[in-house]
Amino acid sequence: MGDERASVWILGDQLLARHPALAAAEQEHAQQNLRVVLVESLRRTRRLPYQRKKLVLLFSAMRHYAEELRTQGYAVDYVQAPTFLDGLRQHVAAWKPSRLFAMDASEWQGRTFQRARLGDELGLPATIVPNTQFLVGRFDPYPGAEASKRVLMEHFYRRMRRHFDVLMAPDGKPVGGKWNYDAENRRPLPPDAEPPPVPTFEPDTITREVMAEVEAAAHGVGTANGFGLAVTRQQALSAFDDFLANRLAQFGPYEDAMSSQHPVLYHSLLSPYLNIGLLEPLELIAAVEGAYHSERAPINSTEGFVRQVLGWREYIYWQYWRLMPDLMEANAWDAQRPLPSFFWDAHTEMSCLHHAIGRAIDSGYNHHIERLMLLCNFCLLAGVQPRAVNDWFLSFYVDAYEWVMAPNVIGMGLNADGGSVATKPYIASANYINRMGDYCPRCRYDHKQRTGQDACPFNFLYWNFLLEHEGTLRANPRLGRNVYGLRYLDEDERSAVRRQASSFLDKLQS
Ligand code: FAD
Ligand code: SF4
Q1: Is the pLDDT at 416 greater than 90, yes or no?
Q2: Least crowded by CB within 10 Å, which of 144, 212, 308, 343?
Q3: Which of 165, 111, 161, 106 is nearest to 318 (CA)?
Q4: pLDDT tens profile 42-57
Q5: Mean pLDDT calculated for residue range 482-497
């Protein structure tokens, strides 16, 4: 082991209990010759007006992580600088390492920079080890698949299940006899249901300090006040234990339900922790599978959760790396409308959107169906520019990072990628929203009306979208069913839909 100095750069969304770049450095350098560096980049946090609770989460978790490393005996440089590169240069000038270790960034721009320029910019060799935060880093279910090859999530997921031996019976069949329990997992929430509250964590001195800084910076959306997320691995594990004990059993049936009263329902609210490395996917999957085998959760909830983490999360990350960088500019439906201004203040008479956007502003959280079937559904039907929608989502959510946002928003939500992530657009009229949620009875609009003064905008926008894109929709066998209903609209009704949609869209302020 040489006595040359080395540095390990740990990014803010890589707060892993055992960081692979640190492990790699320790194989070649004694601990006293190592220094870990974490950088808070001012430019990165100002790229968009980010959700203040997300900034608190990131910086508080980074600072707690640095403290934890120090108690383990590591020397840590915690730098605040205008840019990452400035922070690293500052660190290199002071410590004078002969080498830098880092782990691949999860985002395209960061990783491209690390691989192509980082070492040269710092004037020292940089060793970049593979990212271990995703299971597709260990097993690629479709190696070498070109971006043009369609890979369905269901097929991808089954390969992942088999490879990682999750919920598999000894005969190679899925445990419970079925791969997919979606049909049992689409119940609306009964009016008297009381989902248990999600645990919150009292901010300590470090967190309070970050909250004050974030509020003082006068840049961002929402407020740092009321912050109660986990900021250490221990707290994140306790949030997960609470989910296992109190919500997992009901996770499946109410996965798609929406409620004006209960923002989280039986969801896990673990994405903020998974996405910064405080929790790791396989440990969650193993514990949830254990809950099934010890009869603490039924198969539809267990499989439903495994599908999200081993299926959707990995699929989304895999698609991101396959489709970048073109994904960011994709606009298959040629949507050109700017984002309506009510996305910034929730001032809309549409009750469902008012609730969902209000939550995003206050807490930085909406569950999956609110993101997909309310917010993206509206933007797709209204023809809002994909990049603008993507930036809004990136700004407002506590769990938002480009690798997860772009395929979910541009791909799944807006179907702007030409159908790589989802083979058909997720569009729905008010009928679906009324069936799965409780917003409609208190709304100024009538969810049953297609046109007329009180008609719900989701209805005329839905039919207008079908009319506008009838040719494209008919040409694709998977999309054909969407246009089936147009047969029942006579010419007068079609004109009324078009007129009302156009008048509504013209009045939207951006
Ligand atoms: P649960 O419903 O409890 O699911 C468990 C876990 O599964 C989640 O924590 C998450 O890690 C994973 N997961 C489930 N679906 C997905 C998915 N489609 N993509 C990635 N991971 C998934 N997730 C983010 O982490 N960050 C985002 O910025 C984000 N933006 C989204 C935008 C849109 C338009 C859509 C449709 C989905 C988005 N998702 C995003 C995916 C999903 O909505 C969130 O992961 C989920 O709502 C987080 O809440 P939860 O932890 O309670 O999830
Ligand atoms: Fe949303 Fe329409 Fe229902 Fe109002 S009537 S809550 S706008 S779906």
Answers
A1: yes
A2: 144
A3: 106
A4: 988 888 999 999 999 9
A5: 89
Closest CA to 413 of 379, 459, 464: 379
Check if the beta carbon of residue 247 is closer than 8 Å to that of residue 199: no
From the CA of 396, the nearest ligand is 1
Q: How far is the CA of 350 from the centre of ligand 2 (A)?
A: 6
Query: 85-136: per-residue pLDDT in tens?
Result: 999 999 999 999 999 999 999 999 999 999 999 999 999 999 999 999 999 9
Task: Pick the closest to residue 114 from 6, 4, 5, 10 (CA basis).
Answer: 10
pLDDT at 464 over 90: yes
pLDDT of residue 510: 76
**Does the pLDDT at position 480 exceed 80?**
no
Q: Which amino acid is at 172?
A: G
- Cβ partners under 8 Å of residue 345, min gap 6: 361
Pocket of ligand 1 contains residue 313 by CB under 6 Å: yes
* CA-nearest residue, atom 28 of ligand 1: 400
Ligand nearest, relative to CA of residue 376: 1
Query: Residue 342 has which token pair?
Result: 């009510």
Which amino acid, residue 333?
W
Average the pLDDT over 335-341 and give the result. Answer: 97
Q: Are 487 and 480 in contact (CB under 8 A)?
A: no
Q: Which atom of ligand 2 is nearest to the CA of 434?
A: 3
d(Cα 510, Cα 504) in Å, to the nearest integer? 13
Q: In what order do the strands lie in the sheet with 6-9?
A: 75-81, 34-41, 6-9, 99-103, 126-129
Q: Which ligand is nearest to the CA of 260?
A: 2
Give, for ligand 2, the residue of 443, 504, 508 to mutate: max count of ligand atoms closer than 8 Å to Cβ: 443
- The 8-class DSSP code of residue 373 comes to I
Q: Is the pLDDT of residue 12 over 90?
A: yes
Work out which ligand 2 atom sits closest to the CA atom of 353. 1
What are residue 9's DSSP bridge partners?
37, 102
- The Å distance, Cα 398 to ligand 1 centre, comes to 11
Pocket test for ligand 2, best of 260, 447, 460 (most atoms within 8 A of CB): 447
Q: What is the number of the ligand closest to the CA of 342?
A: 2
Using the mean position of ligand 1's atoms as its centre, give its distance from the Cα of residue 313 in Å.
Answer: 7
Q: What is the mean pLDDT of the chain?
A: 95
Distance 434 CA to ligand 2 centre (A): 7
Distance, CA 156 to ligand 1 centroid (Å)?
17
Q: Rounded distance, CA 164 to CA 281, Å?
A: 12
- For 437-458, the pLDDT digits (tens) are 999 999 999 999 999 999 999 9
